[in-house]
Design goal:
Rossmann fold; 42% helix
């Protein structure tokens, strides 16, 4: 069977756990030459082992311009091009209006918005014409969320990045799309609540999903594979919801 990404070079930021790790694993299984990033070397080394295939781990914080430059220097020296870029690194935390701190705001927007900007802008010299760029959005880009407004606003910014950058890059035929997962069973989601309360959060989130459950990260990875593939050759500037219907009904 032909591998969908055979011969392609892919970069996945935040590829050490959760959705990023699942995307990296799926891309590797489909034949991509991979570069993955993470902020902690120990976790990055473990992820590289878990991903397998032709993969290089680069320790990098996507919100650091110096780290992003080092990432692309490694890609340039090794292979000299990027066919698929997944800007996945990011995160968030709960805080209701009235309790939002300046620190939380900067942490979330630096990680999600600044990090995505640096990741994509830094890749431009290496992206081949016709490349696919996938930005990780969220159902919160379209839905309100109690005590989650800062994260939701950052993901709404990601959604508009996809619209705007699709226009900026149209002369190069580079497709830019946002992928919006619904609730997904990841360490990041579990980490939003105190120890021992993770299953309760997952159950609460599942109750809002028409399919009646949260996603497995591998299901989000399947959508990311589609956006990276030739099957999505006419999909551009869009937001693909992989959310079990949560934001659709």
């Amino acid at each position: 069977m032909t591998q969908v990404l055979a011969g392609k070079v892919a970069v996945v930021t935040g590829g050490t756990s959760g959705i990023g790790l699942a995307i990296a694993q799926r891309y590797a299984a489909e034949g991509a030459r991979l570069f993955v990033t993470g902020r902690r070397q120990e976790a990055l080394d473990a992820a590289v082992t878990q991903i397998g295939g032709d993969v290089t781990g680069v320790r990098a914080d996507s919100s650091s311009a110096a780290d992003v430059d080092a990432l692309y220097a490694a890609v340039r020296e090794s292979v000299g091009r990027i066919d698929v870029l997944v800007a996945n690194a990011g995160g968030g935390s709960f805080a209701p209006l009235g309790e939002i701190t300046e620190e939380q705001y900067h942490d979330t927007f630096d990680s999600n918005v600044k990090g995505t900007l640096l990741t994509v802008q830094g890749a431009l010299p290496l992206l081949v014409d016709g490349a696919s760029v996938v930005l990780l959005s969220s159902t919160t880009s379209a839905l309100g969320g109690a005590a989650f407004s800062i994260y939701a606003a950052s993901k709404a910014a990601i959604r508009n990045f996809a619209r705007s950058w699709a226009l900026d890059l149209k002369d190069r035929g580079i497709r830019v799309n946002a992928l919006a997962p619904g609730p997904t069973h990841t360490p990041g989601v579990i980490g939003l609540v105190p120890d021992g309360e993770g299953q309760g959060l997952l159950d609460t989130l599942a109750a809002d999903v028409p399919l009646g459950r949260v996603a497995d990260p591998s299901e989000i990875a399947g959508a990311a594979l589609f956006l990276a593939s030739a099957d999505a050759s006419f999909v551009n500037g869009s937001e693909l919801f992989a959310d079990g219907g949560q934001a659709q009904v």
